[in-house]
């Protein structure tokens, strides 16, 4: 609540309409344009509040006062410090050429970060790291999204606004692009892996895993593959697991940049939307679905030799286990 109040304190309260200045809440930065400032305010507010509480800068109440009332008074001084701090920040920025903290953050931080964050090298790095962390059993997107998701959110909203106004879409790299055109079947684009399993594998272990994982895999949920195959600490399968998303990102980015495939229109589909359907919905064009089909086929070709190698390994292990079970010492009977 204190962070929200601080956010409102820094929100401009005057709007220039022609030659007139109207007193009103400026909503321009209450959307994606204000997301970075909102994050910064939340972090600073918590630290100031924690600093005051840690040093017991609170109003002490008698022992007979109900706990709920005591807690309310405990929060007064720390909350007041936060509010005063951001009120002073507002005054300081009003004396500069930026006029508001929003303009400062948007000009100095958000705009440069947005251009860097939604570039092809940045998105390639995002997908590489997301897959790389999975190799160690860490949910990769939960790590990378903490850095990139605010940037993707802004670019997605920019595209949605342009789409609604029938204007040219400004960005290729949006959250729907990341969710729907870089990985198919979850991290590592493992839907292709499962297709290869059903196509060529003879290992009982892989076939049983495929039966278990194919349905959730269609909807982008692939923990059964990551921990059941496993992908974690598997030096064989990690190569295509990292390569496929990176290659999908590169191909999608280049082809969309060439104008061969429609860009994502900003409509935020659930990341669980199945491929082909999602490609059409996200772009409003059949070209989105066609791109997904091509990339899934390419991913199948990439996974093929690695899955075949893994299948041979598992067949040997299953054969050895079966022979061990049949190796009975009759001398003890």
TrEMBL record:
A Pfam family hit: PTS_EIIC
GO cellular component: plasma membrane
GO biological processes: carbohydrate derivative transport; phosphoenolpyruvate-dependent sugar phosphotransferase system
MF terms in GO: protein-N(PI)-phosphohistidine-sugar phosphotransferase activity
Subcellular location: Cell membrane
Domain PTS EIIC type-3: 1-306
Lineage: Bacteria, Bacillati, Bacillota, Bacilli, Lactobacillales
Name of this chain's protein: Cellobiose-specific PTS system IIC component
Bilayer topology: Multi-pass membrane protein
This protein's UniProt keywords: Cell membrane, Membrane, Sugar transport, Transmembrane, Transmembrane helix, Transport
InterPro entries associated with the record: PTS_EIIC, PTS_EIIC_3, PTS_Sugar-EIIC/EIIB
Keyword Transport appears in the UniProt entry: yes
Transmembrane intervals: 34-52, 73-95, 115-136, 177-200, 212-233, 240-263, 283-306
Domain of life: Bacteria
């Amino acid at each position: 609540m204190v962070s929200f109040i601080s956010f409102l304190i820094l929100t401009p309260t005057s709007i220039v309409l022609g030659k007139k200045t109207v007193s009103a809440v400026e909503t321009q930065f209450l959307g994606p344009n204000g997301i970075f400032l909102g994050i910064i305010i939340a972090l600073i507010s918590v630290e100031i509040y924690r600093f005051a509480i840690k040093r017991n800068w609170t109003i002490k109440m008698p022992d007979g006062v109900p706990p709920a009332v005591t807690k309310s008074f405990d929060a007064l001084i720390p909350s007041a410090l936060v509010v005063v701090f951001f009120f002073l920040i507002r005054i300081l920025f009003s004396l500069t050429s930026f006029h508001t903290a929003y303009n400062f953050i948007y000009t100095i931080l958000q705009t440069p970060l947005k251009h860097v964050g939604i570039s092809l090298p940045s998105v390639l790095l995002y997908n590489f790291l997301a897959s790389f962390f999975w190799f160690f059993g860490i949910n990769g997107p939960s790590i990378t999204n903490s850095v990139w998701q605010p940037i993707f959110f802004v670019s997605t909203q920019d595209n949605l606004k342009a789409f609604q106004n029938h204007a040219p879409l400004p960005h290729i790299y949006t959250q729907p692009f990341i969710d729907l055109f870089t990985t198919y079947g979850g991290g590592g684009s493992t839907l292709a892996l499962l297709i290869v399993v059903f196509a060529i594998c003879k290992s009982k272990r892989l076939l049983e895993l495929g039966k278990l994982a194919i349905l959730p895999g269609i909807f982008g949920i692939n923990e059964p593959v990551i921990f059941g195959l496993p992908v974690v600490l598997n030096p064989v399968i990690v190569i295509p697991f990292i390569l496929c998303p990176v290659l999908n990102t590169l191909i999608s980015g280049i082809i969309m940049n060439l104008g061969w495939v429609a860009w994502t229109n900003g409509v935020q589909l659930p990341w669980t939307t199945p491929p082909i359907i999602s490609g059409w919905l996200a772009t409003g064009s059949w070209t989105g679905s066609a791109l997904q089909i091509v990339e899934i086929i390419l991913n199948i070709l990439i996974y093929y030799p690695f899955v075949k190698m893994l299948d041979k390994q598992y067949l040997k292990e299953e054969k050895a286990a079966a022979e061990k079970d049949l190796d009975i010492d009759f001398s003890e009977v």
